[in-house]
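Entry 14. Structure prediction run on the chain below.
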Amino acid sequence: MDLVADNLANANTTRTPDGQPYRRKVAIFQPMAPTPQMPGGVRVAQIATDSTPPRMVYDPGHPDADANGYVTYPNVDIVHEMVDMISASRAYEANIQAFNAAKDMFMRTLDIGRV
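Output returned:
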């Protein structure tokens, strides 16, 4: 969700401190082996930049326009970012529901032992 927020905030940033347009950031996930205390899952192995080409927009009046009048905008697609955000939110909700269901089953098991 942090990467999505960062990408959305910089969707129109045509110049970063290095003089280039902002590049979309993506998370590279790595699988985690299950342990007795925790089931398997994934973790963020690294944050990478998306290699898709930037958007070229004709705007000769823009201060960052090239000699032909084109401005290089970041390779951030707002619709794609919103889909990623909804997917991450739904995955988080599903994990919480699974955790609560497991907790409920453990509590019922303890109740059976009390009888």
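The chain has two helices and four strands.
Filed with the rest of this week's runs.
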